[in-house]
Amino acid sequence: MSVENTISVLLSLITLLDAPENRARLMKDRSLAIELCQIIHRTGLTHSSIEVLLLAADVLRLVIEGAREQLHAAMQAKIKELAPDESSTESAPAAAIAAVQTLGEGGPTGDLPPGKSVVFACLEACVWLAARRTPALAPAGRARPAAQRRATGPKGDALLVKSLAAVALLPTLTSPHGALSILPTILYLATEVLRESKESSTVADAGILLLQSGAECRAVSLHDHTREHHARLLHSALAKLVERVKSDDPEQRIDPITGARAMAVLLNNAEPVAPLHYPCINHFRHLIISASELAPDESSSESAPAAAIAAVQTLGEGGPTGDLPPGKSVVFACLEACVWLAARRTPALAPAGRARPAAQRRATGPKGDALLVKSALSILPTILYLATEVLRESKESSTVADAGILLLQSGAECRAVSLHDHTREHHARLLHSALAKLVERVKSDDPEQRIDPITGARAMAVLLNNAEPVAPLHYPCINHFRQCLETSDNEEFKTMMQQSAELRNKLECALKANQANTRINKAQAQRPVFDAKPAKPTIQLKTDFSDFR
């Protein structure tokens, strides 16, 4: 069949299957759906036209969508049978949910026999379509697509993305045991795609999303033994990533940034084990710190740290005690690395007692500001010290000042500390300490230590909006606001006050109270020592001694 005729047939299939009722008719006879997947598989093997391959991937997606719709309808019917009062799987009893989940392909055994399983047929077709972009994905022992027929360029990347997106949907068609049958293939495909993604960020993103779908598979969480098996699979994939990022073979090595993103996905969904957890910690730390030591004009000094920081932003650590032990915590490693990254723009932020970045290699200008912004916004919200130091260094850059204000705001508005009284009290003490530091800095006579008055007022406003005022700190802030209002160059401060009605009301009330208090003190100072004459004594003493009779 010619390419034109093949394209016409595929377009007709897409038009038909785009209607839900036609997808339902297809799935009534599962053997017909399996045969369609096998036809798509053969089309991927025999045609080199990228347009044909992209349309074939679209047909597969519609077949998978039809299978999902059929499974959802079957689950709803089963729920009505087992729990008539419930309308969804979320509110159904646990026993009913367990019974409903076995309706997926694989059942209680997890078998997905070739020729009888829609999931297996779709997986096989998707793998071969992906192999047209990345021949290394072809199953071992099978003939791989010829190199000259490889789909390259943006359309080749689009083919790989569509194929992997279809694979990521397959666990939703299976039972818990059926999901365990295909997860090894999914994780293998993800790691291989990451290895082949050195020259394409699009391919790397597709691999990360596929890895995430395998790591977050919900079906396997219903039973203890399936959860344990899933955890072992994730640990195996994590071990492969650690091995690949350290490999000396250029063909096997995974890009460090891509590897960090993949590690973050797996660490967020599997219990850590020491032999795998520590290498990941070291990889995050070394990646960011080594990038921060590069020359400012090197592109990786900006992109690599920011990407690595983004990779760990979703990692939640710290148990009931809040411990983040050095050398054992990914968050602590990222925190340490972020401080060093910020020190590339502002050397004063380097930890005390440690060598600071060389002055001649300091990152300056817009790129340096962007570097500091990315690192500052990624530090844990309670690190208010970093915010005040960033504000001190922001005299010539509004971008850096905004970064410091946002960091200060994230620390001041931290919701996690509001759950317990002792954490709220500790948070309040931290905010008061930061406010005291701001008051000291805006009044400092040292140009190196002084914070710009307007920047200081903005920072004070953030803290006063989130902390109970205390007199020794409240009144200095009021005086500073008054001075800002009295200066000629106060448009930014006035704009800030206009945008915050709550802060404006607080300031007005505080000024009135302060003025009233001043008048009272002044009146008391002008009063005489004795307000009135002493009262006349009731006993009159004799004061005239002229008559001694």
UniProtKB/TrEMBL annotation:
UniProt xrefs under InterPro entries: Laa1/Sip1/HEATR5
Top-level taxon: Eukaryota
Biological processes, Gene Ontology terms: endocytosis; intracellular protein localization; retrograde transport, endosome to Golgi
Pfam family, one: HEAT_HEATR5A
A cellular component annotation (GO) from this entry: membrane
PANTHER family for this protein: HEAT REPEAT-CONTAINING PROTEIN 5B (PTHR21663:SF0), HYPOTHETICAL HEAT DOMAIN-CONTAINING (PTHR21663)
Annotated protein name in UniProt: Uncharacterized protein
Biological source species: Manduca sexta
Lineage of the species this protein comes from: Eukaryota, Metazoa, Ecdysozoa, Arthropoda, Hexapoda
